[in-house]
Amino acid sequence: MRAAVLENGRVAVRHDFPTPSVDAGEALIRVRLAGICATDLQLLAGYKGGYQGVLGHEFVGEVVAAPGQEAWVGQRVVGELNVGCGRCELCRRGLAKHCRQRQSLGIIGRDGAFADYLALPVANLHPVPPTLSDEAAVFAEPLAAALEILEQAPISPSMRVYVVGDGRLGLLIAQVVAMTGCDLMVVGRHVHKLALLDDLGIRTQVDVDGSALERLAHLTGDVVVEATGSAAGFAAARRLVRPQGTLVLKSTFAGGKVDVDLSSLVVDEVTLVGSRCGPFEPALRLLAQGAVIVEPLIHARYDLDDCETALDHAARKGVLKVLVTP
Amino acid sequence: MRAAVLENGRVAVRHDFPTPSVDAGEALIRVRLAGICATDLQLLAGYKGGYQGVLGHEFVGEVVAAPGQEAWVGQRVVGELNVGCGRCELCRRGLAKHCRQRQSLGIIGRDGAFADYLALPVANLHPVPPTLSDEAAVFAEPLAAALEILEQAPISPSMRVYVVGDGRLGLLIAQVVAMTGCDLMVVGRHVHKLALLDDLGIRTQVDVDGSALERLAHLTGDVVVEATGSAAGFAAARRLVRPQGTLVLKSTFAGGKVDVDLSSLVVDEVTLVGSRCGPFEPALRLLAQGAVIVEPLIHARYDLDDCETALDHAARKGVLKVLVTP
């Protein structure tokens, strides 16, 4: 089969890649559509210290084989990316996505979605409602990640909330947070990206040089979501959170380590919440209901054969979602 | 009156310091006993960028004047240290301890407790139960700070919890956390300090070179409390917290900034909780009930005239609480 393989820091599309074999409990899935995420770009740049294999973890596909569970065959599905060992303390406590021996589709130890086929345990799959297009369903994974915020930091209508960052994930987070009825402001650097939120009635603030931040910092937020993955974004988000408020970290940081004033967190009693993968079922439901708008986020679509170009395109400044079709 | 005054990085006991004047709503308090805390030592070392004035914020005293509220006169009291402006958004929301214009007794803009007298608003005072000795009551402030942990991070009997640090505050935190019935382990560097907890039936682990940490890290905790205020302590605490667990930061860090792997917080969905001053009423109640043992923590007692020597003593390695008597 064809697959976009990351090897030694470079991606190449191979046509002779072996189709994954599937054991009992697993499904072989023909990829219909996949999405490029910032994590893919970070993996290309060496994050996670050298994942080698097929990239890609956002996908919608069709089950073509599921040994012992044939009812799945023919179903259109999306899938959760983490596969725990099933035996350790974390797996037994229902924290398989944090299993220390886990595989993560296209990220750790398991070939990903930029390919004709991928394999995942049936337990990871969620059927896609028939009314939902592939172009919307492919957003299930990042939307689930955005929804994780509401699982970890309850947000009520009386709260003031900031989202810092107007990238792929930031625009999904903004829509999810707006659903709560809170007093929301999204701070970003790109007029054309924020305009997508303006169209949805979500308040935004362009801030290129930090002058808007100076003004906003007088009205600190109960909850602030950091969705830039940059040290500057973290510093801005930290300034916007009130004492005893919550700062949700929703993006990994390319360099990993950031200089943090821990004393100020103690003195201001700020809570920092790391947030990663989230629940797929509500993501699919909200997409089917049209409660979250994703189509305007699609900036380009490439054939799998052109996956290298697709990744280059996704890495360009100001570009939102780039899709890959096998 | 006499007062231990911090000026230009040095403390000197002056005998000609003006007795504080008190406005309506305030009380003039004769200090009976005061305690030296790590914050006092950090202020001496220049933390907070140059507080100048009378040091000290842990005290028990007797009200000698309270204009308009004479019922307080003669009462033995402890007092909360933060005085908000009363007008800003934070004060109006009940977060006066986080007011940006706040004074903090002996820390920011208000002369402290290493003196014959101090002044505080009556609203900050708590009467001391008659059965409680001065030597126990003087621990109300740090014990309240320890109790703040349970306000911010609920701990239940089914949880595994680590306290990292066996200093003045760590030993109070350990006793407070032990009350919850959780599976507690206190990790420290000093056999003689940890022995105080062993006597109370609290499990401890001496770890001087990190080898014990290696073993413990296989049994990560649901909640970990960092009570060292050092970068090494933070690193140890971070290793001990499980994915989706909570790391409570209970000490300010002398240098302020620490290199933090924010990406790992995101991936492991760890929550960091900054924690500062806490509730006095339960602190006084628990001290009166004998539920928290403090007397063995007292290592020395000095007259106010010898406050410089007292501070030197408190700064020595392995020394716990040093008291100052005016």
Distance between the termini of chain A: 10 Å
Which descriptor suits the 3D outline of chain A? globular
Mean pLDDT of chain A: 95
Multimeric state: homodimer
**Poorly predicted spans of chain A:** none
Could you write a compact summary of the structure shown?
Chain A has 326 residues and is an alpha/beta fold.
Description:
Two copies of one chain form a homodimer. Chain A has 326 residues and is an alpha/beta fold. Chain A has helices spanning 38-44, 89-92, 134-137, 140-152, 168-178, 191-198, 211-216, 231-240, 262-267, 280-289, 307-315; strands spanning 3-7, 10-14, 26-35, 53-54, 58-65, 76-79, 82-83, 103-105, 109-110, 117-121, 125-127, 160-164, 183-188, 204-206, 221-226, 241-249, 257-261, 271-274, 298-303, 321-325. In chain A, strands 3, 5, 6, 10, 11, 19 and 20 form a seven-stranded mixed sheet that branches. In chain A, strands 14-13-12-15-16-18 form a six-stranded parallel sheet, with helices on both faces. In chain A, helix 4 (140-152) crosses helix 5 and helix 4 (140-152) crosses helix 10 (280-289). The longest helix of chain A has 13 residues, at 140-152.
Keywords:
seven-stranded mixed β-sheet; six-stranded parallel β-sheet; 11 helices; 326 residues; alpha/beta; homodimer
List the helices and strands and how they pair.
The structure is a homodimer of 326-residue chains.
Chain A: E1 3-7, E2 10-14, E3 26-35, H1 38-44, E4 53-54, E5 58-65, E6 76-79, E7 82-83, H2 89-92, E8 103-105, E9 109-110, E10 117-121, E11 125-127, H3 134-137, H4 140-152, E12 160-164, H5 168-178, E13 183-188, H6 191-198, E14 204-206, H7 211-216, E15 221-226, H8 231-240, E16 241-249, E17 257-261, H9 262-267, E18 271-274, H10 280-289, E19 298-303, H11 307-315, E20 321-325
Parallel strand pairs in A: 12-13, 12-15, 13-14, 15-16, 16-18, 19-20
Antiparallel strand pairs in A: 1-2, 1-4, 3-5, 3-10, 3-20, 5-6, 6-11, 7-8
Helix pairs in contact in A: 4-5, 4-10
